Inverse folding.
């Protein structure tokens, strides 16, 4: 009886020893695997910091593309492209500002000519036919101020020409041809604008006088 029990204990002990040996082997293998992965991660981190391959590493120790950084050459090229784009954008802004200024000066020229033409339409027929009554030239400014030596805005120089009616009709003696010419300079560019209209003896001035 005692011998069978001793034999059973011996067998159980040997079985447990085998199990413990297998668990030890698995633990050692798992530990070796974890240490190997940790070493590879450390080498990979050194490879990323060094910018490429790590000496002594069996495989390329490069970071994934989503975690990779930029080289100095890439940064310099990106800065150069941004600088060129910014310079082009600033030049476009400058051109747009100058273009808007020219449009405003052109619109002001149209306003000056129309204002002068409507003023001359109110003259009586005798005043229109009186030599020297209508000034042959006039000066105006962009903002309507008087021209002075320190004036830095756009100055408009106008010429007024009152002539005979160009067609030989029965009412040619009762009409005059009015030509207004306006000259100005913006951004060192010379501009000119001309308007031709007619003044009739029985025109709008008969309703005024």
């Amino acid at each position: 009886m005692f011998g069978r029990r001793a034999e059973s204990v011996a067998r159980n002990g040997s079985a447990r020893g085998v199990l413990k040996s297998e668990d030890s082997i698995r633990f050692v293998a798992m530990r070796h695997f974890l240490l190997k992965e940790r070493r590879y991660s450390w080498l990979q981190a050194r490879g990323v910091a060094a910018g490429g391959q790590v000496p002594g590493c069996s495989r390329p120790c490069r970071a994934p593309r989503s975690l990779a950084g930029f080289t100095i050459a890439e940064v310099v090229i990106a800065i150069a492209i941004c600088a060129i784009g910014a310079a082009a954008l600033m030049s476009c802004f400058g051109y747009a500002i100058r273009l808007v200024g020219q449009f405003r000066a052109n619109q002001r020229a149209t306003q000056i000519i129309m204002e002068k033409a409507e003023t001359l339409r109110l003259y009586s027929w005798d005043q229109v036919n009186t030599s020297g009554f209508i000034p042959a030239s006039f000066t105006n400014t962009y903002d309507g101020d008087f021209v002075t030596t320190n004036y830095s805005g756009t100055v408009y120089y106008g010429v007024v020409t009152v002539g005979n009616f160009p067609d030989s009709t029965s009412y040619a003696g009762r009409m005059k041809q009015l030509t207004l010419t306006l000259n100005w300079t913006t951004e060192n560019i010379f501009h000119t604008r001309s308007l031709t209209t007619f003044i009739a003896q029985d025109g709008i001035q008969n309703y005024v006088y």
